[in-house]
Amino acid sequence: MIIDPQNVPSRTTSNYPEQFKHLIAGRIKQALGNAAGLKNFGVNLVTLAPGSCSALRHWHTRQDEFIYVLEGEVTLITNAGSQILQPGMIVGFPASEEDGHQLVNKSQRPVVYLEVGDRTVDDEVNYPDNDLIAKASPYGWIFTHKDGTLYER
């Protein structure tokens, strides 16, 4: 199936609990994989406005992630610190490696990248810098504090 990305709807929303949503303001995602009918993995075309970030710093217990930078200069933040990624660079995050990561646009121009992740069931996302854990469920992500109590919706 041939898809023109310009015809794929953009989304600026987040599933995060309300108190974290402002942190990813300026992030635009287009679910290219969904538009192509993919079931086993997702592909998002992501644009980060200056000052925006991809997500809270996180790592997955079961899902792999892959990033390919298309345009702009973005800062990758991991347990090891910060590193600049430029167009053509890639980075992968294997499942269960406890290396919290996020992309931050510290430049004055938009950043565009492809984000690829699998859709393994029973995934859990850990956020080392925040009191937050996300658990995949058949109904979407369930967000809890690290002590297990639910965030209010």
Automatic annotation (TrEMBL):
Residues 45-116 form the Cupin type-2 domain. It holds the Pfam family Cupin_2. Transmembrane segments: none annotated. Gene3D superfamilies: Jelly Rolls. It comes from the Bacteria. GO terms for molecular function: metal ion binding. SUPFAM superfamilies: RmlC-like cupins. Keywords: Metal-binding. Signal peptide: none annotated. The keyword Metal-binding applies. PANTHER family: OXALATE-BINDING PROTEIN, SLL1358 PROTEIN. This is Cupin domain-containing protein. It comes from Cyanomargarita calcarea GSE-NOS-MK-12-04C.
